[in-house]
Amino acid sequence: xxxxxxxxxxxxxxxxxxxxxxxxxxxxxxxxxxxxxxxxxxxxxxxxxxxxxxxxxxxxxxxxxxxxxxxxxxxxxxxxxxxxxxxxxxxxxxxxxxxxxxxxxxxxxxxxxxxxxxxxxxxxxxxxxxxxxxxxxxxxxxxxxxxxxxxxxxxxxxxx
Amino acid sequence: xxxxxxxxxxxxxxxxxxxxxxxxxxxxxxxxxxxxxxxxxxxxxxxxxxxxxxxxxxxxxxxxxxxxxxxxxxxxxxxxxxxxxxxxxxxx
Amino acid sequence: xxxxxxxxxxxxxxxxxxxxxxxxxxxxxxxxxxxxxxxxxxxxxxxxxxxxxxxxxxxxxxxxxxxxxxxxxxxxxxxxxxxxxxxxxxxxxxxxxxxxxxxxxxxxxxxxxxxxxxxxxxxxxxxxxxxxxxxxxxxxxxxxxxxxxxxxxxxxxxxxxxxxxxxxxxxxxxxxxxxxxxxxxxxxxxxxxxxxxxxxxxxxxxxxxxxxxxxxxxxxxxxxxxxxxxxxxxxxxxxxxxxxxxxxxxxxxxxxxxxxxxxxxxxxxxxxxxxxxxxxxxxxxxxxxxxxxxxxxxxxxxxxxxxxxxxxxxxxxxxxxxxxxxxxxxxxxxxxxxxxxxxxxxxxxxxxxxxxxxxxxxxxxxxxxxxxxxxxxxxxxxxxxxxxxxxxxxxxxxxxxxxxxxxxxxxxxxxxxxxxxxxxxxxxxxxxxxxxxxxxxxxxxxxxxxxxxxxxxxxxxxxxxxxxxxxxxxxxxxxxxxxxxxxxxxxxxxxxxxxxxxxxxxxxxxxxxxxxxxxxxxxxxxxxxxxxxxxxxxxxxxxxxxxxxxxxxxxxxxxxxxxxxxxxxxxxxxxxxxxxxxxxxxxxxxxxxxxxxxxxxxxxxxxxxxxxxx
Lengths: 160, 92, 614
Known about the structure:
The complex is a heterotrimer. Chain A has helices spanning 18-28, 60-64, 91-95, 123-127, 138-159; strands at 5-8, 39-43, 47-51, 70-72, 79-81, 101-103, 110-112, 133-136. By secondary structure, chain A is α+β, with helices and mostly antiparallel strands. Chain A has one domain (5-159): Alpha-Beta Plaits, CATH 3.30.70.20. Chain A is globular. In chain C, the strands form four sheets. A six-stranded mixed β-sheet of chain C has the order 2-1-6-3-4-5. Chain C has a six-stranded mixed β-sheet with strand order 8-7-12-9-10-11. A three-stranded antiparallel β-sheet of chain C has the order 13-14-15. The longest helix of chain C is centred in the last third of the chain and has 21 residues, at 521-541. Chain C is globular and about 60 Å long. The two termini of chain C are 37 Å apart. Chains in contact: A-C, B-C. Chains B and C meet through α1, β5, β6 and β7 of B and α8, α9, α10 and α18 of C.
């Protein structure tokens, strides 16, 4: 089953960081961007976009864990952390190429986006004021890119 | 009767013109101007013109010849009036 | 407490020490935060009549109630000190990451007095406050300072608020810059910071911020985010504030060539429409803002290729039409230089425009200018001049004093066309044809400012006849001033104002849900009035009199020469009438002094003795 995860569109993202606030509010009941599962990267003045766990098909974080504290949910791909096994060594954080897994300053174990499991839909997607976040599978990401490319090519064709 | 509607900002961006010349009946009011704009420039509907009530969406208003803002759309227009379609929240 | 932390950080740079003191919920409710709270703290911490550039002046940063939360446009702070430019209250607002960082470090405000022995920067690392050597940063521009400090501290979440070289050389209109492109622009607060040898305040805040009713806040915010994508904010999102250029030009209200005219022949070439088509490379937002109005402009070719700066209307007017510049890339370059040096773009443009008129009238000697041909429209000369002003070189040293002092020093009739009120250079609204605006600029406590009393609203919206001075305009100016004071203290960005159907009801609800502090719509409205009166009391204590609420001579003597507002100007009689109308609306006497009853009504009765009111 294809994994559905939160995708950020850099053409729409304005770097407002509201996704971080919403996430920490939903997951932690307070506002603390350092406990958000989605993080904005602003490279001013050129670009900004958010990154959340991409639910890799073959997640490096899981493979890297020396204590086998991480597993990926079969269906959704969400990374599940065994709170008893995780000792906060941070090896998975080094292994993740996207910087999408973090150490919880309170619980001292790692955490990553779980698609707002209890809420059943990622809240950041709902709240993003610029519709820059979408809940998609990789197949949908590719479809969208193809459509965009063809429209652009046809536009040139029509012009000529 | 000929009047000219001048466009600025988003309205100009949507319609891709700086001004629109309208030919209206002798006793035309500003409401007729808005209705005519709505029919000729559909791009303005939804963002600038409320297509159902035939009114401008706040804070858009019509300024007559740069002199005064029309209080309501029942005002009559005159030959050669220049009607400015303005977003009247200035500031920044 | 919710929202607020209840902590104010007091810093004494002379002895290199800091301490934290508690503030009550009562004080928070009375002044809300931002400009309101900063002014109250300043009032209590400053003795009267300090030299603004002395160690005795306090520089106060105060957060709005919503900083550090998801409340839209709430990530802002107000800064106050006695202004070295006007000699009255200097207050300015800035936005984005620094505001939330301070809240997350655990504070609602920082009050800084004294003077460090050598260049210093403060690093507020949650509970730990460090005084760090800034010798290697002194002389560096704002952007470079931001990069260097972040590198030094090593944590990306660090946010930096700093001065540039203009603050160091005490340019009287130097600003304070945070997060690269956000400025607390007006009234010369950067010079106050420079006079304290304080290069920057860096913050690393890691704590969580709690609000009283999280679920309700989230629901209200979602609704507001959606409304922020609608027509009410369209101007800010699409063209940005530069959409004012063609509107004001068409109304013959675009001050041009140092206010010699009110229309600009080349307005289309410096319009928001032109800017969007040719120069806008990106649109970004401040933190916690769902509107996103920052239009970043880039120059791709020509002599200013590579220049990058966000452009807003006031900068555009001051560095464009006011100096008769019609070459957009030069405006971007000029703004970029002001951003680098840390100078108020409006004051910079205003003082250069004055200098250009002096030059064309032959009031400068050629030697004074080192060969600069300071004609209106000469962009090479004005770019050169900006460097000189920031570094106080050549004629720049005179101009760095601001147009009021510069014209008083030069004399030769140049005061006649020095476009300032109380020493603050004017924003881009030709008040000769916008009479409520004329009043609003004249009475604003921080000087000629459109932000503190946005009285252009009734003029441009047509609530009044903009060419007339009639009874009731005083009340309108007062209402606009109270309204603005609320935004500046809650803090909410004025660009969100159009989204509220019933502002007082909605904002008081949002405030209560966030902070847990009960406030009614009526109490909220009163708070705006209280803050305006407090700022007036501060000014009176510093020697303000009715004479200081004035208009520049040009506005009262030189009618607008052409355009739809041809012939318009403000007469002495009209102005006196409007001013008295405003004082009456305020409940002040004809000298502009609040009555004892008014002060008691506003819970400011304890300040009556400070201004000789019995």
